[in-house]
UniProtKB/TrEMBL annotation:
Pfam families: Epimerase. This is Nucleoside-diphosphate-sugar epimerase. Residues 5-223 form the NAD-dependent epimerase/dehydratase domain. SUPFAM superfamilies: NAD(P)-binding Rossmann-fold domains. It comes from the Bacteria. InterPro entries: Epimerase_deHydtase, NAD(P)-bd_dom_sf.
Amino acid sequence: MRVFFTGGSGKAGKWAIQYLQAQGHHVVNVDRRPSGLDCPELLIDLCDAGQVIGAMSQFVEGAELDAGTGVPTYDAVVHFAAIPRVMIGTDGECFRQNTLTTYNVIEAAVKLGVHKVIFASSETTYAICFADGELKPDFVPVDESHPTVPHDSYAMSKVCNEVTARSFQARTGADIYGLRINNVIEPHEYAEMFPAFMENPALRRRNVFAYIDARDLGHMVDCCLKTDGMGYQVFNVSNDDMSVGITSDQVIEQFYHGVEVRCEMDENETFFSNKKAKRIVGFEPKHSWRDALN
């Protein structure tokens, strides 16, 4: 597939693009800065609707000119570009850029006839990550039916983006899938970060004790590219196991006392349920910090 990928210069985007390329997809990175990857790139401002629709409807590299058949079209759009969290700039600017870029990208895609859009939503939509003080989930494991009433501008922008995507899907009939991505971990970060999580599991409370390996995130994007006809969907994206060394029963006892436990959980099972993604699009995460740290 020919894929218009926004935000490929970021942490998650770089890994996703490389995974998609390995599966045979032709990916064009669209960002404000170069990625350093071996792929064609367009450097634009996604907050400018004209630049977005222009980038999505123009030649990208010289080889495309040789066929003499006009500008090639895209089979899919993957939208990862965003201010990645609060407390980088102002709250208002985080909200403005994240909502405006998402609107511009999806609008351009559907107007140009691209019938598959995958966009990055977030674990933060469940409010826990950036809450002021401790906020416990309504129930565990947290699945896609959990309420999304966030307390911060980043999570607010992601909830707004989900509404925007659902509205475009209802109007056009395109397949538009949102990925509620948990904390993205690169392979080298296991040795750097996870020993501290083993010593103090409370460090993972705001991430619902979950994580997603950057390589498995790329796999999830590919699964969505290969699955058609679902209309609008949102999926939690996480690895199968928790990011702490204690058992699920111990997590419940120490951190989720009084919280409804909706199903029996395996000893190391993630509290950020990925069962929907596994059931519907065939997501099968392959990596674990347990393997990396023996």
